[in-house]
Design brief:
It holds the Pfam family Amidase. By secondary structure, this protein is an alpha/beta fold. The protein is about 40% helix and about 15% strand.
Length: about 475
């Protein structure tokens, strides 16, 4: 096994035991980037010189007994919305052509303090306003979409071109590409991970979180990221927590909600079959399955768009007026549409969100976790714009991908996607686990238990 094939947890164990050096690990990942990047195009920028320098520093520190923790010397990638001092944050847009970050974002600073080594910035849809990441190819099939808007981060992790990565999630932009590329994606509780220094799409829906090989890796990264930062007005004040899940795999007493509506409506048969098998596996591990009714589903899409569109337009107000021609046509049209939305519609969306949060909160009086598909279909061929369901209805691809993930953004609840096998053409399928606010430990426990019981997963078979 090559060092780039190791999960972050396994690599950390090897580094701590002295079986591997940070230099060997970073060199292996950089070599892997050179091998797969021409086919996959996951990276906007590869910071090879910086990475090698930081790896040598990490090696000196560990040799001197100054071990910063489990992420010390681990290669990471950051979505190109996340500021790193002295590095461009382009947001994959010509609007940011001359931008250079003056300071680290909170998450970059925290990961740097933990000793993680930046190997590059990953592609996103322009300003994260999309669910496809058009620059990047799916790690399992280059003719298919990567998902987005954290598509570059998901593909880098799936292909072994980063040990872990960060993405942002406004309507599913961590979980959608994670599911489509066969990796783990965690959208934490709203406010748990600070967003200072991260380019915003929609301030009341934005989250930042990890994309990783395993659930245990996600827990390691979350432990380094979480914590209050007063520079983010939404940042929660919480006690420091080690989020790593127990290793026994016993889910006895865990109540798993299985939706009888919404989440299994209009999904592909191969996705439904894989997710239901995974839910049955949770029951075999001791969980008790409970049917639940998802509330207020008819209002979800309108509420999500009613919040996101005007907030995105407000963020871009100045540049939309001064340099509109620098935006791609699809993003510019969405931003201009936001200028036409009445304030009353935004207020009504906020009121609807409050009612949804209350209704979802009541669900968690009955269950501890809700298990459902992450996306309704595997990765579609690049260029496909619509899906036709067996009932004859047609749905846009981006609308379909966001449909099952947006509820956790509207409510702010934590959500974890875990690979649960393969569907059509051997492409990955994801199961989404959602929990109550600050219930990450429960999601990670359930996801890790499933992962331990499931067949071992390999990296994407990049040619």
């Amino acid at each position: 096994m090559q060092p780039y094939e190791l999960s972050a947890t396994a690599a950390a164990d090897a580094l701590r035991a002295g079986h591997l050096s940070p230099v060997e690990l970073v060199d292996s990942v950089l070599d892997r980037i050179g091998q797969v990047e021409p086919q996959l195009r996951a990276y906007a920028t590869v910071t090879a010189d910086r990475a090698r320098q930081d790896a040598r520093a990490a090696a000196r520190e560990t040799a001197d007994g100054r071990f910063r923790g489990p992420l010390h010397g681990i290669p990471m990638a950051l979505k190109d919305l996340i500021d790193v001092a002295g590095t461009a944050t382009t947001a994959s847009s010509r609007v940011r052509a001359d931008h250079l970050a003056q300071a680290d974002s909170t998450v970059a600073a925290r990961l740097g303090a933990a000793g993680a080594v930046l190997v590059g910035k990953t592609h996103t849809h322009e300003f994260a306003y999309g669910l496809i990441t058009p620059q990047t190819h799916n790690a399992w099939d280059r003719q298919r979409v990567a998902g987005g808007s954290s598509g570059g981060s998901a593909v880098a992790v799936a292909a072994g071109a980063a040990s872990f990565a960060l993405g942002t999630d406004t309507g599913g932009s961590i979980r959608v590409p994670a599911a489509l590329n066969g990796v783990v994606g965690l959208k934490p509780t709203y406010g748990l991970v600070p967003r200072h220094g991260i380019t915003s799409l929609s301030w009341s829906l934005d989250h930042v979180g990890p994309l990783t090989r395993t659930v245990e890796d996600a827990a390691l990264v979350l432990s380094a990221l979480a914590g209050h930062d007063p520079r983010d007005p939404a940042s929660l004040i919480t006690d420091p927590t080690d989020h790593r899940p127990p290793r026994d795999g016993d889910l006895t007493g865990l109540r798993v909600g299985v939706p009888r509506n919404y989440y299994f409506d209009r999904i592909a048969p191969d996705v439904e079959a894989a997710v239901r098998r995974a839910i049955d596996q949770l029951a075999e591990l001791g969980a008790r399955l409970v049917e639940v009714e998802i509330p207020m589903t008819r209002y979800l899409q309108a509420t999500h768009w009613g919040l996101m569109v005007p907030e995105a337009t407000a963020y871009h107000e100045r540049t939309l007026r001064t340099v509109p021609d620098r935006y791609g046509d699809d993003v510019r049209i969405l931003l201009e549409a936001g200028e036409l939305m009445p304030a009353g519609d935004y207020v009504r969306a906020q009121r609807a969100r409050t009612l949804m949060r209350q209704a979802w909160s009541q669900l968690f009086d009955e269950v501890d976790v809700i298990a459902a598909p992450t996306v309704p279909t595997v990765a579609v061929p690049a260029g496909q714009e619509t899906l036709t369901w067996p009932d004859g209805t047609t749905e846009g691809v981006s609308d379909a991908y966001v449909r099952l993930s947006a509820p956790a953004n509207v409510t702010g609840l934590p959500a974890l996607t875990v690979p649960v096998g393969q569907g059509e053409a051997g492409l990955p399928v994801g199961m989404q686990l959602m929990g109550r606010p600050l219930g990450e430990s429960v999601l990670l426990r359930a996801g890790h238990a499933y992962e331990q019981a499931a067949p071992a997963r390999a990296l994407a078979p990049v040619a």
